[in-house]
Design brief:
26% strand; three-stranded antiparallel β-sheet; alpha+beta
């Protein structure tokens, strides 16, 4: 039987944005919170993405704001996003075991995804629609929750989904201020 498939390019690009942004958030969390940060799991779709990070305490909103600001700094810097196939030994000697943020990768060769010089991970996921961090457009952290002791979940949106999220929040703020008859900054 012959089957013809068609990729929804816009949907795939948005999932790719979210996937690449998760790599970026992981790297930024390590820079802000410390080298002990490790990815404990992740999820990505066209509406949002989430990453579970190992951390010994609740991540504060102040820390999340710093992570978000650093991520958007890298978006503005237009860092290259590249993939390369390397032998396992070469990849490990070049980038160390931090390559395995997403878990063990089978095989003698690894597909390494690099974001400039700030992050290098073994990853078979979709990144080929993104050539630079500028294509992420905007990274917005929208939620934090504790998953279990020592694991914090960070939910993000990027690109058009981040803009839509910000517009919805601004609308809610405006409507609440109007309903209460006060300026937004007094809510």
């Amino acid at each position: 039987m012959k089957v013809r498939g068609k990729v929804d390019g816009a949907r795939r690009k948005q999932i790719t944005r979210h996937h690449t942004a998760i790599h970026l958030i992981n790297a930024c969390a390590r820079q802000i919170l410390g080298p002990h940060i490790w990815q404990g799991g992740s999820y990505k779709d066209e509406k949002k993405a989430q990453i579970d990070l190992t951390h010994y305490k609740k991540i504060t909103w102040d820390e999340l704001e710093k992570i978000e600001q650093l991520a958007n700094k890298y978006v503005i810097e237009d860092l290259p996003v590249k993939t390369q196939i390397l032998g396992r030994t070469e990849a490990e000697s070049k980038y160390g075991f931090r390559l395995y943020q997403g878990g063990a990768v089978p095989g003698k060769e690894l597909r390494v995804v690099s974001i400039g010089e700030i992050d290098h991970e073994a990853c078979g996921g979709t990144h080929n629609y993104i050539k630079s961090t500028a294509e992420l457009e905007l990274v917005k952290i929208v939620k934090r929750e504790g998953v279990q002791d020592g694991v914090e979940r960070v939910v993000i949106k990027c690109g058009p989904e981040a803009i839509k999220h910000i517009e919805e929040r601004e609308r809610l703020l405006r409507e609440a201020a109007e309903a209460l008859g006060v300026p937004e900054d007094q809510l």
